[in-house]
Amino acid sequence: MPLQDSYELPAAADMHVHLRNAPGPIAELVTPTIRKAGVDTVFVMPNLAPKPVVSVAEALEYKAHLQALDPSVTYLMSLYLHSSITPDEIRAAKTAGIAGVKAYPRGATTNSQWGVVSFDPFHDVLKAMEEEGIVLNLHGEVPSNPTEGVTVMNAESRFLPTLRNLVEKYPRLKIVLEHCTTADAVETVRSFGENVVGTITAHHLSLLVDDWSANVNNYCKPSAKSPEDRRALLNAAVHSNGKFFLGTDSAPHDISAKKGKGNTAAGVFTQPYALGYVLTALEEAIARGDLASEKEVTEAALSGFFSTYGRAFYAIPQSIKKIRLTRGGQVVADSLKSDGAEIVPFRAGETTWGVEWLS
Ligand code: DOR
Ligand code: ZN
Asked: Taking the model in full, what pTM does it have?
């Protein structure tokens, strides 16, 4: 049996998005698609180039530019964990309403060249975050290292001991293991208390390693993995109980960075259609037997995963706005294009779920 033909749900919160530099051509193209996707709140990643967001002043300036692009969205801002950040800056971040600090292991992904080599030098900053209730958002991968046998396929599993150390050392620190891609990661997140959660993207609920090795538009970090890993993610999404929620890691790159010479940029662009991609992935999972039946996909599970669990974790108000998702309501564009950029969305050209705002 398929899912219902339509769902009325609270407005969604996407707790992991890349909107790129603002003002800038990609931000101008993608920020207006947040609301169209049925989303009213986003957690914005700080890995801008040529300079990441490392201070409260920079984060607030960035936020103001995003608000100018769409004032109706709530932007939760973050800092990039960097040696220039002090415990006082963390306290100022709390006062300014900044929600999290993102740690990128150096060399693990796009714009991680200013990232973390070891967490040891950040002890005082992490203590201040624990005290202030500022979230640590982890890109949970170690960089590839052939000598040590690390490839994109085991980079997340190899990071999990670091997560365990952080939880042990900072037991009250709120931590998000971003974009979980493995059964190991799901199990590890589940083993901790309620201050440790995971986000799951829309695309990792449908992709496998074969899908990105054949198509650059499906390539991201962490990369999609095995059928067993995907099954664990699907089950975590519908049986989350607050432990897992949507963070799309929608990562727009201009078509030239995906298809040009040299290495392709990591990132799958899902922003405008993310909720529909999730529903499609759940239906495909039911058809394959990765989910036992459509009865597992309750409205409560969808509301929680799309909206209420993420807001509860970040201690922000629940949305009183409602959306309706309708099967077959729209077709994914071949690309989003302006004078300055062209971005190919995930599942381009396929029919997906439509989104309407009811209030
Ligand atoms: O695929 C990814 N793209 N993973 C990341 O961690 C960063 C992101 C980006 O910024 O493009
Ligand atoms: Zn990301």
From this structure: 0.98
